[in-house]
Amino acid sequence: MTVWNYTVSLATVNVVATDIADSTTADDLEAYRSEVQQFLEANTVVDPSIDDSRKYFMNLADAGLGGTVYDKRFGGAGLTKKHDRVFREEAGRFPFMGSEFIISHGMCLPVLNDFGTDEQKERFMPDCIAGRTMWCQMFSEPGAGSDVASLQTKAERDGDEWIINGQKVWTTLAHMSDYGVLIARTNPEAVKHAGISMFIVPMNAPGVEIRPIHQIDGGRHFNEVFFSDLRIPADHLLGEVNNGWNQATAMLMYERVAIGTVGSGKINQPVFKMLKAAAGANGQLEDPIVRQQMMEIYSMETTKALMALRTRAEMKAGKAPGPAGSLGKLFGSKIHWRMRDVMMNMRGPASMAWDPDAPGGEDLSRYTLNSFQSSIAGGTDEIQKNIIGDRVLGLPRDISVDRGVPFKDLKTGTQRSD
Description:
Elements: H1 26-43, H2 50-62, H3 81-91, H4 102-115, H5 118-129, E1 135-138, E2 154-158, E3 161-168, E4 179-185, E5 196-202, E6 208-213, E7 222-233, H6 244-260, H7 270-281, H8 288-316, H9 325-347, H10 361-370, H11 381-392
Parallel strand pairs: 1-4
Antiparallel strand pairs: 2-3, 3-7, 4-5, 6-7
Helix pairs in contact: 1-3, 4-5, 4-6, 6-9, 7-8, 7-9, 8-9, 9-11
Protein backbone atom coordinates (compact mmCIF):
# COMPACT_ATOMS: atom_id res chain seq x y z
CA MET A 1 0.00 0.00 0.00
CA THR A 2 1.43 3.35 -0.98
CA VAL A 3 -0.27 6.68 -1.40
CA TRP A 4 2.00 9.73 -1.50
CA ASN A 5 1.73 13.18 -2.94
CA TYR A 6 5.50 13.45 -3.31
CA THR A 7 7.20 11.47 -6.02
CA VAL A 8 10.52 10.31 -7.37
CA SER A 9 11.62 10.54 -10.95
CA LEU A 10 11.68 7.54 -13.22
CA ALA A 11 15.42 7.94 -13.38
CA THR A 12 15.81 6.96 -9.72
CA VAL A 13 14.10 3.62 -9.64
CA ASN A 14 16.83 1.15 -10.49
CA VAL A 15 18.83 1.51 -7.33
CA VAL A 16 20.70 -1.78 -7.48
CA ALA A 17 21.57 -2.01 -11.14
CA THR A 18 25.17 -2.78 -11.98
CA ASP A 19 26.87 0.10 -13.73
CA ILE A 20 28.02 -0.54 -17.24
CA ALA A 21 31.72 -0.19 -17.97
CA ASP A 22 32.04 3.47 -17.11
CA SER A 23 34.19 5.64 -19.34
CA THR A 24 31.89 8.63 -18.87
CA THR A 25 33.69 11.97 -18.89
CA ALA A 26 32.66 15.28 -17.37
CA ASP A 27 31.95 16.57 -20.89
CA ASP A 28 29.68 13.59 -21.52
CA LEU A 29 27.68 14.36 -18.39
CA GLU A 30 27.36 18.05 -19.24
CA ALA A 31 26.10 17.17 -22.72
CA TYR A 32 23.62 14.78 -21.14
CA ARG A 33 22.55 17.43 -18.63
CA SER A 34 21.83 19.84 -21.47
CA GLU A 35 19.76 17.19 -23.27
CA VAL A 36 17.76 16.49 -20.11
CA GLN A 37 17.15 20.20 -19.51
CA GLN A 38 15.86 20.69 -23.04
CA PHE A 39 13.55 17.71 -22.70
CA LEU A 40 12.14 18.84 -19.36
CA GLU A 41 11.58 22.39 -20.59
CA ALA A 42 9.57 21.05 -23.53
CA ASN A 43 7.61 18.29 -21.79
CA THR A 44 6.72 19.29 -18.22
CA VAL A 45 3.55 21.09 -17.17
CA VAL A 46 2.18 22.27 -13.83
CA ASP A 47 -0.48 20.02 -12.25
CA PRO A 48 -0.33 17.29 -14.92
CA SER A 49 -3.28 15.03 -15.63
CA ILE A 50 -2.84 11.30 -15.98
CA ASP A 51 -2.84 11.74 -19.77
CA ASP A 52 -0.11 14.38 -19.46
CA SER A 53 1.95 11.97 -17.37
CA ARG A 54 1.56 9.11 -19.83
CA LYS A 55 2.57 11.36 -22.73
CA TYR A 56 5.57 12.57 -20.75
CA PHE A 57 6.87 9.07 -20.07
CA MET A 58 6.26 7.96 -23.64
CA ASN A 59 8.23 10.96 -24.91
CA LEU A 60 10.93 10.28 -22.32
CA ALA A 61 11.32 6.73 -23.59
CA ASP A 62 11.25 7.83 -27.23
CA ALA A 63 14.01 10.33 -26.49
CA GLY A 64 16.17 7.56 -25.01
CA LEU A 65 16.00 9.07 -21.53
CA GLY A 66 13.49 6.77 -19.81
CA GLY A 67 14.62 4.15 -17.30
CA THR A 68 18.08 5.70 -17.10
CA VAL A 69 20.09 2.73 -15.84
CA TYR A 70 17.93 -0.13 -17.13
CA ASP A 71 19.18 -2.27 -20.00
CA LYS A 72 18.24 -1.03 -23.47
CA ARG A 73 17.03 -4.54 -24.22
CA PHE A 74 14.28 -4.02 -21.63
CA GLY A 75 13.29 -0.51 -22.66
CA GLY A 76 15.77 1.49 -20.59
CA ALA A 77 18.42 4.00 -21.58
CA GLY A 78 21.35 1.74 -20.59
CA LEU A 79 23.22 4.61 -18.93
CA THR A 80 25.24 4.89 -15.72
CA LYS A 81 24.37 5.91 -12.19
CA LYS A 82 26.24 9.16 -12.85
CA HIS A 83 23.64 9.90 -15.51
CA ASP A 84 20.93 8.91 -13.05
CA ARG A 85 22.19 11.49 -10.57
CA VAL A 86 22.27 14.20 -13.25
CA PHE A 87 18.72 13.37 -14.31
CA ARG A 88 17.45 13.59 -10.73
CA GLU A 89 19.20 16.90 -10.16
CA GLU A 90 17.61 18.44 -13.23
CA ALA A 91 14.18 16.86 -12.76
CA GLY A 92 14.04 18.33 -9.25
CA ARG A 93 13.96 21.80 -10.81
CA PHE A 94 10.82 21.11 -12.85
CA PRO A 95 7.24 20.07 -12.06
CA PHE A 96 7.11 16.34 -11.48
CA MET A 97 5.06 14.55 -14.11
CA GLY A 98 4.34 11.14 -12.61
CA SER A 99 2.84 11.17 -9.13
CA GLU A 100 0.53 8.31 -10.07
CA PHE A 101 3.44 6.24 -11.38
CA ILE A 102 5.47 6.01 -8.19
CA ILE A 103 4.36 2.41 -7.56
CA SER A 104 4.93 1.40 -11.18
CA HIS A 105 8.38 2.95 -11.41
CA GLY A 106 9.61 2.96 -7.83
CA MET A 107 8.52 -0.53 -6.75
CA CYS A 108 7.17 -2.82 -9.47
CA LEU A 109 9.76 -1.95 -12.09
CA PRO A 110 12.86 -2.74 -9.98
CA VAL A 111 11.23 -5.97 -8.76
CA LEU A 112 10.57 -7.01 -12.36
CA ASN A 113 14.18 -6.19 -13.16
CA ASP A 114 15.53 -8.11 -10.16
CA PHE A 115 13.39 -11.26 -10.29
CA GLY A 116 11.80 -11.48 -13.73
CA THR A 117 12.94 -13.83 -16.46
CA ASP A 118 14.38 -12.29 -19.60
CA GLU A 119 11.10 -13.07 -21.34
CA GLN A 120 9.13 -11.27 -18.61
CA LYS A 121 11.46 -8.29 -18.74
CA GLU A 122 11.19 -8.02 -22.52
CA ARG A 123 7.41 -8.29 -22.34
CA PHE A 124 6.57 -6.01 -19.42
CA MET A 125 9.39 -3.55 -18.69
CA PRO A 126 9.36 -1.40 -21.87
CA ASP A 127 5.67 -0.53 -21.51
CA CYS A 128 6.08 0.10 -17.79
CA ILE A 129 9.05 2.41 -18.33
CA ALA A 130 7.22 4.30 -21.08
CA GLY A 131 4.05 4.72 -19.01
CA ARG A 132 1.95 2.73 -21.44
CA THR A 133 1.01 0.48 -18.53
CA MET A 134 0.43 1.26 -14.87
CA TRP A 135 1.14 -1.22 -12.07
CA CYS A 136 -0.06 -1.70 -8.49
CA GLN A 137 1.18 -3.69 -5.49
CA MET A 138 -1.14 -6.25 -3.86
CA PHE A 139 0.20 -7.28 -0.44
CA SER A 140 -2.13 -6.24 2.42
CA GLU A 141 -5.24 -8.24 3.35
CA PRO A 142 -8.04 -7.77 5.92
CA GLY A 143 -6.27 -10.22 8.24
CA ALA A 144 -2.71 -9.44 7.14
CA GLY A 145 -1.73 -5.81 7.40
CA SER A 146 1.40 -5.11 9.42
CA ASP A 147 2.02 -8.87 9.50
CA VAL A 148 1.79 -9.41 5.75
CA ALA A 149 3.26 -12.91 6.09
CA SER A 150 -0.11 -13.97 7.57
CA LEU A 151 -1.74 -13.55 4.14
CA GLN A 152 -4.39 -16.09 3.16
CA THR A 153 -4.87 -15.42 -0.54
CA LYS A 154 -3.91 -18.73 -2.12
CA ALA A 155 -2.52 -19.76 -5.49
CA GLU A 156 -2.77 -23.38 -6.65
CA ARG A 157 -1.04 -24.85 -9.69
CA ASP A 158 -3.35 -26.42 -12.27
CA GLY A 159 -1.39 -27.61 -15.29
CA ASP A 160 -0.18 -24.58 -17.22
CA GLU A 161 -2.06 -22.14 -15.00
CA TRP A 162 -2.24 -20.81 -11.46
CA ILE A 163 -5.68 -20.46 -9.83
CA ILE A 164 -5.88 -17.59 -7.34
CA ASN A 165 -8.57 -17.02 -4.69
CA GLY A 166 -8.63 -14.43 -1.92
CA GLN A 167 -8.77 -10.73 -1.17
CA LYS A 168 -6.42 -7.76 -0.97
CA VAL A 169 -7.16 -4.38 0.59
CA TRP A 170 -5.73 -0.86 0.55
CA THR A 171 -4.45 -1.46 -2.98
CA THR A 172 -3.47 1.93 -4.33
CA LEU A 173 -4.57 2.71 -7.91
CA ALA A 174 -5.83 -0.82 -8.59
CA HIS A 175 -8.74 0.75 -10.49
CA MET A 176 -6.30 2.49 -12.86
CA SER A 177 -3.70 -0.25 -13.17
CA ASP A 178 -3.10 -2.65 -16.05
CA TYR A 179 -1.06 -5.11 -13.98
CA GLY A 180 -0.36 -5.85 -10.35
CA VAL A 181 2.40 -7.61 -8.41
CA LEU A 182 0.68 -10.00 -5.99
CA ILE A 183 1.91 -12.33 -3.27
CA ALA A 184 -0.13 -15.42 -2.43
CA ARG A 185 0.24 -18.58 -0.37
CA THR A 186 1.39 -21.56 -2.41
CA ASN A 187 2.33 -23.98 0.41
CA PRO A 188 0.21 -23.87 3.60
CA GLU A 189 2.23 -26.79 4.98
CA ALA A 190 5.27 -24.53 5.33
CA VAL A 191 5.84 -21.90 8.03
CA LYS A 192 4.12 -18.65 7.22
CA HIS A 193 7.14 -16.88 5.70
CA ALA A 194 8.21 -19.84 3.57
CA GLY A 195 5.16 -20.85 1.55
CA ILE A 196 4.57 -17.60 -0.37
CA SER A 197 5.08 -16.84 -4.06
CA MET A 198 4.90 -13.69 -6.19
CA PHE A 199 2.84 -13.28 -9.36
CA ILE A 200 2.12 -10.86 -12.19
CA VAL A 201 -1.66 -10.33 -12.42
CA PRO A 202 -3.52 -8.66 -15.33
CA MET A 203 -6.04 -6.42 -13.55
CA ASN A 204 -8.68 -6.81 -16.28
CA ALA A 205 -8.67 -10.62 -16.18
CA PRO A 206 -11.90 -12.56 -15.46
CA GLY A 207 -12.02 -13.34 -11.75
CA VAL A 208 -10.65 -9.93 -10.64
CA GLU A 209 -13.12 -7.56 -8.96
CA ILE A 210 -12.02 -4.08 -7.86
CA ARG A 211 -14.05 -2.09 -5.32
CA PRO A 212 -12.99 1.50 -4.51
CA ILE A 213 -12.64 2.60 -0.89
CA HIS A 214 -14.06 6.07 -0.20
CA GLN A 215 -11.60 8.37 1.59
CA ILE A 216 -12.15 11.12 4.13
CA ASP A 217 -11.38 13.84 1.56
CA GLY A 218 -13.83 12.41 -0.97
CA GLY A 219 -11.17 10.72 -3.07
CA ARG A 220 -11.01 7.11 -4.23
CA HIS A 221 -7.34 6.18 -4.28
CA PHE A 222 -7.44 2.86 -2.41
CA ASN A 223 -9.29 -0.29 -3.35
CA GLU A 224 -10.34 -3.73 -2.25
CA VAL A 225 -9.48 -6.42 -4.81
CA PHE A 226 -11.20 -9.80 -4.85
CA PHE A 227 -9.97 -12.91 -6.70
CA SER A 228 -12.48 -15.62 -7.53
CA ASP A 229 -10.94 -18.57 -9.38
CA LEU A 230 -8.66 -16.19 -11.24
CA ARG A 231 -6.55 -18.11 -13.75
CA ILE A 232 -3.21 -16.76 -14.89
CA PRO A 233 -0.56 -18.45 -17.06
CA ALA A 234 2.12 -20.42 -15.25
CA ASP A 235 4.76 -18.08 -16.68
CA HIS A 236 3.26 -15.21 -14.66
CA LEU A 237 5.06 -16.55 -11.59
CA LEU A 238 7.58 -13.82 -10.74
CA GLY A 239 10.79 -15.25 -9.31
CA GLU A 240 10.99 -18.60 -7.52
CA VAL A 241 8.02 -20.54 -6.21
CA ASN A 242 7.77 -20.34 -2.40
CA ASN A 243 10.43 -17.62 -2.29
CA GLY A 244 7.92 -14.80 -2.44
CA TRP A 245 8.58 -13.52 1.07
CA ASN A 246 12.21 -12.71 0.30
CA GLN A 247 11.09 -11.00 -2.90
CA ALA A 248 8.32 -9.13 -1.09
CA THR A 249 10.86 -7.93 1.48
CA ALA A 250 13.00 -6.56 -1.34
CA MET A 251 9.96 -4.80 -2.79
CA LEU A 252 9.14 -3.25 0.60
CA MET A 253 12.70 -1.96 0.82
CA TYR A 254 12.26 -0.32 -2.59
CA GLU A 255 8.98 1.15 -1.38
CA ARG A 256 10.45 2.69 1.75
CA VAL A 257 13.47 4.00 -0.09
CA ALA A 258 11.20 5.53 -2.75
CA ILE A 259 9.13 7.26 -0.06
CA GLY A 260 12.03 8.08 2.24
CA THR A 261 14.30 9.54 -0.47
CA VAL A 262 11.73 11.61 -2.34
CA GLY A 263 13.35 14.59 -4.01
CA SER A 264 16.83 13.28 -3.26
CA GLY A 265 18.30 15.07 -6.26
CA LYS A 266 18.63 18.21 -4.14
CA ILE A 267 17.91 19.75 -0.74
CA ASN A 268 14.25 20.74 -0.78
CA GLN A 269 11.54 21.80 1.69
CA PRO A 270 8.16 21.39 -0.04
CA VAL A 271 6.03 21.31 3.13
CA PHE A 272 7.75 24.43 4.46
CA LYS A 273 7.07 26.24 1.18
CA MET A 274 3.41 25.25 1.33
CA LEU A 275 3.11 26.47 4.94
CA LYS A 276 4.92 29.72 4.10
CA ALA A 277 2.44 30.43 1.30
CA ALA A 278 -0.49 29.64 3.59
CA ALA A 279 0.92 31.89 6.35
CA GLY A 280 1.41 34.71 3.84
CA ALA A 281 -2.19 34.39 2.65
CA ASN A 282 -3.37 34.56 6.29
CA GLY A 283 -1.16 37.52 7.19
CA GLN A 284 0.79 35.41 9.71
CA LEU A 285 4.32 35.58 8.34
CA GLU A 286 5.39 38.01 11.07
CA ASP A 287 3.84 35.96 13.89
CA PRO A 288 6.85 34.74 15.95
CA ILE A 289 5.14 31.48 16.94
CA VAL A 290 4.22 30.68 13.34
CA ARG A 291 7.75 31.53 12.20
CA GLN A 292 9.23 29.24 14.84
CA GLN A 293 6.91 26.39 13.79
CA MET A 294 7.76 26.85 10.12
CA MET A 295 11.49 26.83 10.83
CA GLU A 296 11.04 23.59 12.73
CA ILE A 297 9.47 22.08 9.61
CA TYR A 298 12.26 23.60 7.48
CA SER A 299 14.90 21.97 9.66
CA MET A 300 13.15 18.60 9.65
CA GLU A 301 12.79 18.60 5.85
CA THR A 302 16.41 19.64 5.36
CA THR A 303 17.54 16.80 7.63
CA LYS A 304 15.36 14.32 5.74
CA ALA A 305 16.78 15.53 2.41
CA LEU A 306 20.33 15.03 3.68
CA MET A 307 19.41 11.51 4.82
CA ALA A 308 18.00 10.85 1.36
CA LEU A 309 21.17 12.06 -0.33
CA ARG A 310 23.21 9.76 1.89
CA THR A 311 20.98 6.79 1.05
CA ARG A 312 21.27 7.49 -2.68
CA ALA A 313 25.03 7.88 -2.37
CA GLU A 314 25.24 4.47 -0.70
CA MET A 315 23.20 2.94 -3.50
CA LYS A 316 25.41 4.58 -6.08
CA ALA A 317 28.33 2.90 -4.33
CA GLY A 318 26.66 -0.47 -4.95
CA LYS A 319 24.73 -1.08 -1.73
CA ALA A 320 21.28 -2.62 -2.12
CA PRO A 321 18.34 -0.90 -0.40
CA GLY A 322 18.11 -2.01 3.19
CA PRO A 323 16.32 -1.33 6.46
CA ALA A 324 17.84 2.13 6.76
CA GLY A 325 15.21 3.21 4.23
CA SER A 326 12.75 3.02 7.11
CA LEU A 327 14.50 6.01 8.70
CA GLY A 328 13.50 8.34 5.89
CA LYS A 329 10.03 6.85 5.68
CA LEU A 330 9.43 7.30 9.43
CA PHE A 331 10.84 10.83 9.46
CA GLY A 332 8.60 11.78 6.54
CA SER A 333 5.63 10.65 8.61
CA LYS A 334 6.81 12.74 11.57
CA ILE A 335 7.04 15.79 9.30
CA HIS A 336 3.45 15.34 8.18
CA TRP A 337 2.19 14.91 11.72
CA ARG A 338 3.93 18.16 12.70
CA MET A 339 2.67 19.90 9.56
CA ARG A 340 -0.90 18.99 10.40
CA ASP A 341 -0.61 20.54 13.87
CA VAL A 342 0.88 23.73 12.42
CA MET A 343 -1.76 23.96 9.71
CA MET A 344 -4.60 23.47 12.19
CA ASN A 345 -3.15 26.18 14.47
CA MET A 346 -2.82 28.55 11.52
CA ARG A 347 -6.12 27.99 9.77
CA GLY A 348 -8.42 26.47 12.38
CA PRO A 349 -11.45 24.63 10.91
CA ALA A 350 -10.38 25.74 7.41
CA SER A 351 -7.45 23.33 7.67
CA MET A 352 -9.87 20.44 7.15
CA ALA A 353 -13.01 22.03 5.69
CA TRP A 354 -12.85 24.39 2.75
CA ASP A 355 -14.92 27.19 1.30
CA PRO A 356 -15.67 26.30 -2.35
CA ASP A 357 -15.37 30.00 -3.23
CA ALA A 358 -11.94 30.42 -1.62
CA PRO A 359 -9.16 29.78 -4.16
CA GLY A 360 -6.60 27.25 -2.99
CA GLY A 361 -8.43 26.38 0.20
CA GLU A 362 -9.50 22.96 -1.03
CA ASP A 363 -5.94 21.93 -1.87
CA LEU A 364 -4.65 22.84 1.60
CA SER A 365 -7.54 21.09 3.35
CA ARG A 366 -7.12 17.94 1.28
CA TYR A 367 -3.41 17.98 2.06
CA THR A 368 -4.12 18.14 5.79
CA LEU A 369 -6.67 15.33 5.59
CA ASN A 370 -4.34 13.17 3.50
CA SER A 371 -1.51 13.64 6.00
CA PHE A 372 -3.09 11.00 8.24
CA GLN A 373 -2.17 8.30 5.76
CA SER A 374 1.56 9.06 5.98
CA SER A 375 1.89 7.04 9.18
CA ILE A 376 0.11 4.05 7.60
CA ALA A 377 0.88 3.97 3.87
CA GLY A 378 3.99 2.02 2.97
CA GLY A 379 4.19 0.47 6.46
CA THR A 380 3.03 1.93 9.77
CA ASP A 381 5.24 4.03 12.00
CA GLU A 382 5.26 1.21 14.55
CA ILE A 383 6.56 -1.26 11.96
CA GLN A 384 9.25 1.19 10.86
CA LYS A 385 10.38 1.56 14.50
CA ASN A 386 10.56 -2.22 14.87
CA ILE A 387 12.65 -2.50 11.69
CA ILE A 388 15.00 0.26 12.79
CA GLY A 389 15.35 -1.20 16.28
CA ASP A 390 15.92 -4.75 15.07
CA ARG A 391 17.84 -4.39 11.82
CA VAL A 392 19.55 -1.01 12.18
CA LEU A 393 20.26 -0.71 15.92
CA GLY A 394 20.54 -4.44 16.61
CA LEU A 395 18.09 -4.45 19.51
CA PRO A 396 16.45 -7.73 20.61
CA ARG A 397 13.56 -8.86 18.43
CA ASP A 398 9.98 -9.24 19.61
CA ILE A 399 9.04 -12.70 20.86
CA SER A 400 7.75 -14.88 17.99
CA VAL A 401 5.20 -17.48 19.08
CA ASP A 402 4.65 -18.90 15.59
CA ARG A 403 8.25 -19.77 14.72
CA GLY A 404 8.45 -23.23 13.12
CA VAL A 405 4.67 -23.72 13.03
CA PRO A 406 3.07 -24.64 9.66
CA PHE A 407 0.81 -21.85 8.46
CA LYS A 408 -2.24 -24.12 8.30
CA ASP A 409 -1.96 -24.65 12.07
CA LEU A 410 -1.82 -20.97 13.01
CA LYS A 411 -4.57 -18.85 14.45
CA THR A 412 -3.75 -15.79 12.42
CA GLY A 413 -5.63 -13.11 10.61
CA THR A 414 -9.11 -14.39 9.83
CA GLN A 415 -7.94 -18.00 9.89
CA ARG A 416 -8.81 -20.21 12.84
CA SER A 417 -7.43 -23.70 13.34
CA ASP A 418 -9.46 -26.40 15.12
